[in-house]
Design goal:
Layout (H helix, E strand, L loop, with lengths): L10 H6 L7 H15 L14 H10 L4 E4 L6 H7 L7 E5 L14 H10 L5 E5 L4 E5 L6 H4 L1 E3 L1 H7 L9 E3 L1 H4 L4 E5 L6 H5 L2 H4 L3 E4 L2 E4 L5 E6 L3 H4 L5 H6 L2 E4 L6 H11 L4 H6 E2 L2 H15 L13 H20 L5 E2 L9 H5 L6 H6 L1 H16 L20 H9 L3 E4 L4 H9 L2 H10 L8 H14 L3 E6 L2 E6 H8 L1
Parallel strand pairs: 1-10, 1-11, 4-7, 7-10, 12-13
Antiparallel strand pairs: 2-3, 5-6, 8-9, 14-16, 15-16
Helix pairs in contact: 13-15, 13-16, 15-16, 15-19, 19-23
């Protein structure tokens, strides 16, 4: 029901307007029903969950369940919880001055009941917007029952000259103060077991116990919990009676396709407008960036139980553009294009986001990041050029023979980090066989992407052990494989 909240300021006016109370779970349910029936998007900006997580979340809301979102880090669990605010009524009335957002027609607190008894229809009403109806608490080992439920306040008792036997000396915690709101507890298994036990009655019976006080407070709260399955074994667990009181447990997941991962990264990346306008990013570069995360999730060096957050690709994309921007500033150019060698600038974004197993620790985080990068190149390479088999017949012709022979007959070439775009293009154009392979296998490639694809071809041959690459202080040197071996000898 839509009410003119600007004109209604007393309980009498609220009754005259025909206001009817409903619980927060009913609000969510009926507003969701309305959106679904109109074909409106319910969780805007969430990609890859359209056929999996979102339908399950909608079913849980329609069932009026408290919800546990279970998944690895960086799977938009908290984002989903925050978007539930959009399913609430825009404004709700509360008793003015109430600590726990009392419904004027169904007051819970002693303060509101006595105020309504004293003033009747003249009881002042205030209005609460849905954006203010979201409470969030990160579960940490130091969280106490007093933080969540409440405690006796001796200062209040002294100021009001009340006995400790009077329930007015209670200072309410976060949960009672979030009455008629969405309350999210992130990383629930990190909450100590004895604190989880304190949630039992609130979820089921609707009463709270504080320092011997047992108050009947049937709080009206939509609980959403988030948890990482890794936490069940490493740091703690959700106690069984609490899990039993949570209506729906919904499993989240990582993007299953590069296209969806790209959409998430482009939506979430914090980019400067000047970066967007001055730096061109080829589609292949965007795919390659996402493929690094896909490789990490399947890598023998990375702890799969810990997961690889979507934030890995987001921060890597930000670093990629910043690397190209810095190069352009050094070269005094207004615009530039992302190069494959710019990907070395994303390594700090990768190493800080992945948890390594023992074998990965032995290799080192930087080395593992380079391995993931090369694996990503090898995975995408057959999408653009003929696949390079591990075992090839000696007499069989390879489409890359002429290019490899060019390196064998020359001393290779150097690709410096801070070349201008014209210099960069001139260096790659000095290898005629690159042009031949591009025209043969990618004739329709956009003009802006040609030089990135040329560099991708060289790195692909290196990743497949057909060429060698050596890093020196200001760039890379590419050589044929055997010439590099002989020079080392």
């Amino acid at each position: 029901m839509k009410l003119d909240f600007k004109r209604i300021s007393t309980l009498g006016e609220l009754k005259a307007a025909g206001y009817q109370s409903r619980s927060i779970k009913d609000e969510l349910r009926w507003n969701l029903r309305d959106k679904i029936s109109k074909g409106e998007e319910t969780f805007r900006g969430i990609w890859g969950y359209e056929e999996s997580v979102i339908p399950e979340l909608e079913r849980a809301i329609l069932s009026r369940h408290n919800i546990n979102l279970l998944g690895l880090r960086g799977q938009a669990k908290t984002r989903l919880a925050r978007l539930m605010v959009n399913l609430l009524d825009e404004w709700i009335p509360v008793v003015a001055g109430s600590e726990i957002n009392d419904d004027p027609l169904k007051p819970l607190s002693r303060f509101s009941r006595e105020l309504i008894k004293e003033k009747g229809d003249k009881t002042p009403i205030s209005w609460l917007h849905r954006e203010d109806r979201f409470y969030e608490k990160l579960a940490t080992p130091d969280v106490t029952v007093a933080d969540l439920i409440g405690d006796v306040d001796p200062i209040k008792a002294a100021n009001m000259k009340l006995s400790y036997a009077d329930d007015r000396v209670i200072h309410f915690g976060m949960i009672p103060r979030s009455n008629r709101c969405i309350f999210v507890i992130n990383e629930l298994p990190d909450l100590q077991s004895r604190i989880q036990v304190s949630l039992f009655n609130i979820l089921q019976e609707g009463d709270i116990q504080i320092r011997g006080f047992k108050l009947r407070l049937p709080l009206d709260i939509q609980f959403v919990f988030t948890a990482n399955p890794e936490d069940y074994t490493n740091r703690g667990s959700i106690v069984t009676p609490l899990k039993d009181r949570i209506g729906s447990q919904i499993l989240t997941h990582y993007p299953e396709e590069i296209e969806i991962a790209r959409r998430i990264t482009e939506q979430e990346a914090q980019l400067d407008e000047r970066q967007v306008q001055s730096i061109y990013v080829p589609d292949l570069a965007k795919d390659l960036l996402e493929q690094i995360s896909f490789e990490a999730r399947n890598s023998e060096y990375v702890d799969s139980k810990s997961g690889v957050s979507a934030r890995t690709s987001i921060t890597a994309f930000e670093n990629l553009l910043s690397t190209a921007e810095r190069r352009a500033l050094i070269s005094d150019e207004d615009k530039t294009r992302v190069r494959l060698s710019d990907f070395m600038g994303v390594i700090p974004a990768i190493t800080g986001k992945i948890e390594l197993v023992y074998e990965g620790e032995q290799e080192g985080a930087d080395t593992v990041a380079l391995i993931l990068f090369e694996d990503a190149i090898k995975t995408l390479f057959p999408n653009y050029f003929p696949k390079i088999e591990k075992l090839e017949h000696k007499e069989a012709e390879s489409p890359y023979d002429n290019l490899i022979n060019w390196f064998f007959e020359s001393e290779g070439f150097d690709l410096m980090d801070n070349l201008t775009d014209d210099e960069y293009e001139a260096v790659l154009n000095s290898i005629p066989e690159l042009n031949t392979l591009i025209k043969r296998h990618q004739p329709d490639i956009p003009k802006e992407d040609i030089f990135f694809l040329k560099e991708f071809l060289l790195w692909g041959l290196v990743a497949n052990k057909k060429l060698s690459k050596r890093r020196f202080q200001k760039g890379y040197q590419f050589k044929d494989l055997y010439g590099s071996f002989i020079s080392k000898l």
